[in-house]
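[job 4471] stage=fold_predict status=RUNNING
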Amino acid sequence: MRFDLTDLRLFLAVVEAGSITHGATAANLSLAAASERLRDMEAVGGVSLLDRGRRGVTPTRAGEALAHHARLILGQIARMQGDLGEHALGLRATVRLLANTAAMTEFLPDPLGVWLAAHPRIDVDLRERQSSEIVKAIAGGLADIGIISDAVDSGGLTLRPFAIDRLVVVMARAHPLAGTKRIAFADIVDQAHVGLAAGALQDHVEQQAENVGHKLKVRARVRTFDGLCRMAAHGVGVAVMPETAARRSSRSMSIAIARLTDDWATRRLSVCCRSEPELPAPARDLMAHLAETGVRG
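[job 4471] inference complete, writing structure tokens
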């Protein structure tokens, strides 16, 4: 039975995602290539590895055994590469880091930039995910460290404080609620919104609307927080975004800002991993750096 590392990474990604399509995307493979690899793995092994259903895929008992060993193998390889990268001239190491939208855009660039500048032979594979997806990926060995909010169950991962992310509502100064300093999401959920084109934060906000029986009315979608503020300033709609980004934009734009009072709108962000002692040396160093330099005001 011969599986290469790409096979193992793909299989873990599919198991964690519960979907061949999403697993293929996470493994940077086309759906056709991923499907062919999975069929070949089952043919070579002579066993069924996945139960395929209308709602996605789940591992068989043989698949669970393969996933367990794949995590051990890939984890050991990552630790080997990290440890060798500290000693071998010219050998590069990569730390796999997952983060939610707020962490990636507001809290991570400065401390990560400082760390990368001090470690020129180490690269960081940084990807944006929802906190719930990050927990699954870290637990499944698909990434070294992650940054998650306390809105999700960390599932026994090792956590270290990183930042506090407060969400606010941004609106035009002429908006009827512009003079309000604190607003409940229920007060603006049925209004016109401007949102991000994609990302974990936008998914989170729209899920909160669904939780109270609404579908968010998004008039336009943009790619940046600056774009959200510009749209809101023109009265296109209200926008929910991190307070740090809103305050920065308010220096040059005519917008009003109100803090959301809902519990889910104040999120404590943590750096997480499965086990610090088991991390590759570069990932362990980066995790310590982020925990020491995080923003907890």
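[job 4471] summary: The domain at 1-90 is CATH 1.10.10.10 (Arc Repressor Mutant, subunit A).
[job 4471] exit 0
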